[in-house]
TrEMBL record:
Native organism: Sagittula salina
High-level lineage: Bacteria, Pseudomonadati, Pseudomonadota, Alphaproteobacteria, Rhodobacterales
Coiled-coil ranges per UniProt: none
Secretion signal, residue range per the UniProt entry: none
Protein known as: Acyl-CoA thioesterase
Pfam families according to UniProt: 4HBT_2 (PF13279)
Gene3D superfamilies: Hotdog Thioesterase
InterPro entries (UniProt xref): HotDog_dom_sf, THEM6_lcsJ_thioesterase
Amino acid sequence: MYPFFRLFKDMARARKAPRMGILDTHVSQHRCMPWDLDMWNELNNGRALTLYDLGRIPMAARIGLVGVLKRERWGLAIAGSVVRYRRRVHGFNRIEVQSRVIGWDRRFVYIEQSMWKTDGECASHIVLRSAVTDGNGIVTTDRLSAALGIDMVESPALPEWVAKWVEAEDLRPWPPHRET
């Protein structure tokens, strides 16, 4: 089950926090609970993605995106992600999630998130390609920029490895091969 109570708690904190700029970093604190664990008593990789949600959605609220989504009746979708897991997170461990927008193109906003253990080690890192949607499909970032009332005309340069990932995604066939 999705951790709605945790999300409500994190959103309440985000409402009390100062508004942040589109390129600022949102920092959130979490604890790995028993229902987040796999059979090896460590954070399940799928649940790690859910904990990243708990960092990303309050970040969107602090940027002003959640209010725009409600006002415009737009949706928010993840169009792709690449994740690297490096250190185990065990039950009841505290973790810090850092979330930030690193750039955009005409259709997508790229978000980088990292999960840090209390000993200072990075447990995992993810980059996501997100899209704002309406009834006609993807809302372009110039429309998003206007709705947010901020300047998103020129994106910072994406790190080279992210740009290469974007290129690779553009080459990837869709739909994928399916045995008949």
